[in-house]
Amino acid sequence: MLHFDSDYMEGAHPRILEALCRDNGSQHVGYGLDGICGEAKDRIRKACGTPDAEVWFLVGGTQTNRTVIDSTLRPYEGVVAAESGHISVHEAGAIESSGHKVITLPQHDGKIDAAELRDYLETFEHDENHDHMVKPGMTYISHPTEFGTLYSAGELREISGICHDHGIPLYLDGARLGYGLAADGTDVTLHTVAECCDVFYIGGTKVGALFGEAVVITHPHLIDGFFPQIKLNGALLAKGWLLGLQFNTLFTDGLYERIARNAIVQAMRIKRGFAEKGYRQLFDSPTNQQFLILDNETMDCLRKDVSFSFWEKYDDGHTVVRFATSWATKPEDVDALLQLLQHP
Amino acid sequence: MLHFDSDYMEGAHPRILEALCRDNGSQHVGYGLDGICGEAKDRIRKACGTPDAEVWFLVGGTQTNRTVIDSTLRPYEGVVAAESGHISVHEAGAIESSGHKVITLPQHDGKIDAAELRDYLETFEHDENHDHMVKPGMTYISHPTEFGTLYSAGELREISGICHDHGIPLYLDGARLGYGLAADGTDVTLHTVAECCDVFYIGGTKVGALFGEAVVITHPHLIDGFFPQIKLNGALLAKGWLLGLQFNTLFTDGLYERIARNAIVQAMRIKRGFAEKGYRQLFDSPTNQQFLILDNETMDCLRKDVSFSFWEKYDDGHTVVRFATSWATKPEDVDALLQLLQHP
Amino acid sequence: MLHFDSDYMEGAHPRILEALCRDNGSQHVGYGLDGICGEAKDRIRKACGTPDAEVWFLVGGTQTNRTVIDSTLRPYEGVVAAESGHISVHEAGAIESSGHKVITLPQHDGKIDAAELRDYLETFEHDENHDHMVKPGMTYISHPTEFGTLYSAGELREISGICHDHGIPLYLDGARLGYGLAADGTDVTLHTVAECCDVFYIGGTKVGALFGEAVVITHPHLIDGFFPQIKLNGALLAKGWLLGLQFNTLFTDGLYERIARNAIVQAMRIKRGFAEKGYRQLFDSPTNQQFLILDNETMDCLRKDVSFSFWEKYDDGHTVVRFATSWATKPEDVDALLQLLQHP
Amino acid sequence: MLHFDSDYMEGAHPRILEALCRDNGSQHVGYGLDGICGEAKDRIRKACGTPDAEVWFLVGGTQTNRTVIDSTLRPYEGVVAAESGHISVHEAGAIESSGHKVITLPQHDGKIDAAELRDYLETFEHDENHDHMVKPGMTYISHPTEFGTLYSAGELREISGICHDHGIPLYLDGARLGYGLAADGTDVTLHTVAECCDVFYIGGTKVGALFGEAVVITHPHLIDGFFPQIKLNGALLAKGWLLGLQFNTLFTDGLYERIARNAIVQAMRIKRGFAEKGYRQLFDSPTNQQFLILDNETMDCLRKDVSFSFWEKYDDGHTVVRFATSWATKPEDVDALLQLLQHP
């Protein structure tokens, strides 16, 4: 059986396991106050070109989104996001549970549109009833988006400028950031992200780590009391050095972006393979998630040998499915998949 | 100056003031446990045809929505509403602040569509990721809607049936219920509402009272611990008998529906007056709110003598405005408005 | 039957009803943006000697406590209060429901002790685990306390100084403030309160109004976005002018303190009456609540003709009960009570 | 330098690392729906003697407490705990942040007293104001307590009986459960815990795992919708099999209790060593945490070579400190500590 269900099916990159086996017997102080975390934070600051940024390590994506957003907003503020954003749809209401509305804008291949964001913010400010409405207090974007698509550097800068014109911080969910940075043709680097965003996270869970997300607060006074807010959200790992160790490894010798590249290479092979057989994509994704429109017969046939995600019904005879690759995807698994496509 | 800004500009119906002046010096136990509240509850149960219903009195609409919805839902549930619903737009995030997502459906003249509700509920249940999504735990409708429109009895029954098929209670926001019941051509009575809804409230603030909303729980075991939940939401009035006194008066000799009728009569005069002059409506509202598309010149001219609400920009030359009447609207004020229309 | 159960059994002072009857037919804009509210705010600022204070009107005490405290605190902060404080015991968890811990200090006749407050704050700051603990973000006191007792001006100033030394605002719950100001021997005036507190409220519900509490923010930048936070807490009254009207009346010609005086006079008569018969008090209260230790036989006997509150069991043969007077207590009712004491 | 600061300074037991290295390259479905989790759950059910229990894996202790408690309680309910309970003091307000009060009872060497619990519950039920108070909806105990002490089986059964008499579930925080089970002289087994508690967790973080806590719901209908509530609390680990793998290892061949034994042996050596030198303990702890009263001179002297936790000031010349051992404490480190005691 071949598995392309998601990008978090495997464990960690071997170098992380090596480091873990090496340090497992040592003793470390708790809660991320250890030296390994310190070292990892320095590496991340350096990679981002932001020597003054705060860096924090959390365990998972929903946890990070909830903690960052609730820690930033005032009780009467909400967060603006694409209607397809992870916080809008697939976090079981984590943001609302912490007391804040997710204010949705239309999605365009998973992205928000700068002009629509500006319109929304201006309309809000001019609405004579705005004191009876949820005030936008942060803008959330994901990069890559939930549909695998990417913002250009120009788009990020425009969105960032609009947010700052309206006094609102920009937050980027980088659960799959590595795959965005490693994509062909992107002009967005880690420096671009750090330059445009007030806070963002570099996803580890999906890009080489066992678990872990590195939050970078480039605007250091954005959030006061972040430590106790991590704690009260249940997001403080006792053995915080486990997170430091993983990010320290990922940010040594450019490992993070390098291993992400494999996911892109394998995803592009899948993309081309399906295209050559005439299958259409739902989004033109340059990253590790490929959304394909399959006729139901082919889909059922493939299912016997391959696992992948159901995305949505396309029409009575067709279905959209998702194939995800990762840093750990084996080329021979993609070979086998393409072979099946040739001779289903 | 003529005022058609809203339907809560005046105080209370004179009979309420009379009752208040009569009872003001008496002593009553607190928190709605007094005899006047008991009497008022009985009158409401009788008017609804629901002898076993629980009846509670709260102070205002947003407070009632927040308290009822949060008291009913489990932490992982949200409430389904029209995107134009009051809880979706104009309660400053009260529902989210209590931890719950407002899940929006498209609005059609302010109403949700039964088929779209059914589709949404079925799609949710079949979504393989639904455990990562907010579960619909209640359906919210307003009647009249925020746009002055009304559900038919058939529509209410269909929506109610769909909710119950999916094990979800139906909640009706009746902030302006009196104006809905008094409208021409409606086939919805208080009995219909009580028959279709698991919980609803009869609005007093906008229909004759100084303040106050009567919550009717027709499905008595729907909410456990409602009293302490009213308290912790800051919604428990110390002198609860003030609420009982008002509803007791409104539900004596059919006063509630009778006084609502005036708002309808005056609103229809405004509607016809504008129509005769060729102005279009944004919605065909049979109730006390009339949404008119005015050219900006007329609007500016009227504004010198009349106050009304800005609703939204229609196009560069036109604006949608709202005229609201109430139980207290004076016919001579409408005369004067219509006069102004003739000779602006 | 004589009623001394509580101080919110009657309606409003006759002058308020007169004003209401006079203004009932007028039209006012909603949500407290009307001229009457403006006038009332000015009167309160003047009475407090704080021309720059923000003044807001809310409906009830628990609502006010919840809204003020939640609007002031950051998510990781709690509010310090006496273990007997209203927010600690009798608000059904309203503060916790909004996400904040009530951090309790011992009560001494219902009051917190300045030295214990200082010790607590210093100990917290020096605790090496304080980032894992709830940070004190506000101090709450009630004046009069829940036991009818009063702080001296010196005590208020000392507590205020300690709070400010630690960067924490002081909030005073004045549900019964009028009765505190009108007590014999107190050196606390409204000016003292305004000088010591960053925010406090002047209780209307228990002192002459139908309902209503006036929040005074003497440190005007303490709370940002208070209006939408009132709204999302369900605490925004549509017909806000009803609150303005009541406080406008109460703060005209010193009515508020003047009518409070009657409660004191009658309470002192009750106090003396019981003392003369040899009954002991649980607290030496100079205000409108008197806590008496009755033998159970006397209590049961009195109960046939008088209603009062059970407070707590004292020992097997005795019970603590509360007699409350108000601005509306009739001297002849106290006469009758004292008569019953003579000839039970 | 010797480290006795805490029991979570080391990584995982070597067998866990072996299993991780073996499975790291395999592919697993996410969120704990994999086979390893299934196997681990079965092993835990068997060890507890509860074939029908639900078992869930979460990442850390505060997260688990918050998620379990909030998922169980209704909005108007609180959780009863010792004033020294972890949820009362050291979770930065996580429980309150989720909307619930921690109702505290006195602690006796870290434990609650059954009679005081019964008194509290009965007094609450008979309080005529209980609808204005937070309703006890769950009882929380920790075993071992935060002070290293243990309940006897008789005490657990008595507390359990009282809870059930009042319709309240009993929840046991077993962050250090292994050390409780492995203590000398205890009559509490995993079966006892499962028999007495409606829900409890078996701590992995402090007893052999990298991280992870296993929640056992012995009363399976106690919590509805636990999966989405784990998600919305940010507590759902994407690679859930990492948790299954660790507990599967710990519950194979009795590893969990076996490795816990080392912590006890080493802690008892420390206890005896200090006792022999005449030092007193603050609590008579039979588990891995030893609280010692040191004169400040000795303390400062030891600090040069040993790290341990400051607990609290005892008097001007003495301080209470904590020495913690773990499954990984090396006997030679304890040798060295005892040597230092002999020749400071």
From TrEMBL, chains A, B, C, D:
GO terms for molecular function: lyase activity. Its cofactor is pyridoxal 5'-phosphate. Keywords: Pyridoxal phosphate. Gene3D superfamilies: Aspartate Aminotransferase, domain 1, Type I PLP-dependent aspartate aminotransferase-like (Major domain). Residues 30-229 form the Aromatic amino acid beta-eliminating lyase/threonine aldolase domain. GO terms for biological process: amino acid metabolic process. It comes from the Bacteria. The keyword Cytoplasm does not apply. InterPro entries: ArAA_b-elim_lyase/Thr_aldolase, PyrdxlP-dep_Trfase, PyrdxlP-dep_Trfase_major, PyrdxlP-dep_Trfase_small. The keyword Cytoplasm does not apply. Belongs to the threonine aldolase family. This is Low specificity L-threonine aldolase. It comes from Bifidobacterium primatium.
